[in-house]
Design brief:
The chain is of the alpha/beta class and 541 residues long. The chain is built from 13 helices and 13 strands. InterPro entries: DUF4159.
């Protein structure tokens, strides 16, 4: 109630300012966690800080009243009878400390307002750069701004410690002779103490009586220097800890965005270019010097040169550049692997493994791809909302697959409701084949696995796959699929295609691993194209 009463006593501008800052903190938390509002809403709200900051700074320059010129701390209040004030050591005055009251000078208030404005305007600049998709500039500004924020906070820590030390220096020592533990008080027992090397007597006493604090002898060091060192160390640790916690504050919501652009769903074409080659012919006359004769048109020979290149932009929809019409400028094709219990889900994961496939996809389609492959648990698929879910997730291994009932439900929701697709690869055993088929019977009990024909669109675009390439036919020689509502919900490769993507290509010849790269490109492209079609239909509806 005291806080409410104090808030009511404030002037209307102060109340509006506190309300604005409270909403700003809530929006900042929303931006780092659930992200319900679009980025433009945050930018518009933070733009208000430009005129508002100017008003704050102008009001901070107003001449303060006489009571604000008092010292920062109103430290003590002497409560004693007049006759007791001069008795000496026999009768001590009763000293009552009153809560410290902050008194800021005009200059200090301006510095405080400038510090708050800096944080708000720095946040606004980051939002604008994020909205413009200038990721490099935003990252640089974030690093520089964080360093400046550290030094601004350090200056306020130094200021606060100096004022607090002044306040506690005016208070009397404890009557019972107890040690002072307050680090803001320069008279604290742990300042100016010889900690190292420890005296032998103190060390033995600490070993014998670990529950007792040894009586360390004071040293000749400066107490103020010790206090400054403790303050710097504590502030640096707290700042680092809060920064790490804030950077990890991602909440329970994730989004997946495809790269913006457009293109056609056609095979990569081979274009035949005809190049006219005019050959020079030497005509020698025995009765004259050598002369060059221009050959007639009918003697021009045509040389056919076959050049393989993209005859179109690979993608879907109308847009500039290679990509998808429902993508965004910051979007990238990502390869997300599923983590599951019971097996080696991380087989050929990352650098030297499935990252090779992701990079090859970017080279072959000119789509923007992520720098690294990723992994998520099956339960984490629930964090992706409808319309911002991964079009494709990847799964491999050669051992057991153990899914809980909730994971089965999440997987079914991802494939059916969120229009996702599962790309699975048998990493090396017939046992994994049986495990995966059993898992899919639980996830999609009403859909049966069928062989995917080689003339299906998933085996024709963007590459024509004349045969199914494999390293070893652990689960057969045909790709299996789960088909529903006009699309493939799952694609199962039975022959360890992931080993062909990895460094060394499992020792298979170039034709095999090249066909494996093409098959992977087709499956990834198919999932994203179908997802873009679905989003386009949803937006029209």
């Amino acid at each position: 109630m005291n806080a409410v009463n104090r808030f009511r006593k404030l002037s209307p501008p102060a109340q509006w300012t506190i309300g604005y800052l409270a909403v700003w903190l809530l929006l900042l938390f929303e931006l780092r966690t659930v992200q319900w509002f679009p980025l433009g809403i945050h930018v518009l709200y933070c733009v208000i800080t430009i005129p508002l900051g100017m008003v704050w700074f102008r009001r901070a320059r107003i001449t303060v009243t006489s009571d604000t010129l008092h010292p920062l701390w109103e430290s003590t209040e002497i409560v004693a009878r007049p006759s007791e004030l001069f008795v000496g050591n026999e009768t001590q005055s009763r000293v009552r400390q009153t809560p410290p009251r902050w008194r800021l000078s005009q200059r200090e208030r301006r510095y405080l307002v400038a510090s708050v404005i800096y944080v708000l305007w720095w946040h606004l600049a980051l939002l604008i750069l994020d909205l413009l998709v200038w990721d490099a500039a935003r990252a640089s500004l974030a690093r520089v701004g964080m360093g400046a924020l550290f030094f601004i906070g350090l200056m306020w820590v130094v200021w606060g410690i100096e004022r607090a030390s002044t306040f506690y220096a005016q208070t009397p020592l404890p009557e019972d002779g107890k040690r002072i533990w307050n680090p803001l008080d320069l008279r604290a027992w742990f300042y100016a103490v010889q900690w190292w090397p420890p005296p032998l007597g103190n060390l033995l006493s600490l070993i014998r009586h670990p529950n007792r604090v040894a009586s360390w002898k004071p040293s000749m060091r400066n107490r103020k220097l010790d206090q400054s060192f403790v303050a710097l160390l504590s502030y640096s640790f707290a700042f680092l800890l809060l920064s790490l916690l804030f950077s990890q504050l991602r909440g329970c919501r994730e989004i997946y965005e495809m790269p913006a652009g457009g293109g056609e769903q056609k095979q990569l074409a081979q274009v035949v270019k005809i190049k006219k080659v005019i050959r020079k012919k030497y005509v020698v006359n025995p009765l004259s010097a050598i002369r060059f004769a221009v050959p007639p048109i009918d003697e021009v020979q045509l040389k056919l040169m076959e050049i393989t290149e993209h005859a179109y932009t690979v993608g879907f929809g109308e847009g500039k550049g290679a990509g998808f019409s429902e993508g965004t400028f910051r979007g990238k094709v990502r390869l997300i692997r599923l983590e599951y219990s019971g097996g080696d889900w991380d087989q050929d994961f990352g650098i030297g493994g499935d990252l090779n496939m992701l990079l090859e996809y970017g080279i072959r389609t000119s789509h923007h791809v992520a720098e690294q492959t990723e992994s998520r648990t099956i339960s984490q698929l629930h964090n992706f909302p409808i319309g911002k879910s991964p079009p494709l997730v990847y799964m491999t291994g050669q051992q057991n697959i153990s899914l809980s009932s909730s994971e089965v439900k999440t997987m079914r929701e991802y494939l059916v409701d969120k229009h996702g697709m599962l790309f699975a690869d048998n990493g090396g055993s017939r046992h994994f084949h049986n495990q995966f088929i059993a898992m899919m019977n639980r996830v999609l009990p009403d859909v049966q696995a069928v062989p995917i024909p080689l003339d299906d669109v998933i085996h024709r675009i963007p590459y024509q796959i004349p045969y199914l390439p494999y390293v070893a036919p652990h689960g057969g020689k045909e790709a299996l699929g789960w088909y529903r509502d006009g699309r493939w919900l799952a694609y199962y490769h039975p022959g360890d295609i992931g080993d062909a993507w990895a460094d060394g290509h499992a020792g298979v010849n170039a034709d095999i691993w090249e066909s494996c790269y093409r098959t992977g490109t087709n499956v990834i492209f198919y999932a994203h194209a179908e997802y873009s079609k679905w989003l386009e239909a949803q937006n029209k509806d």
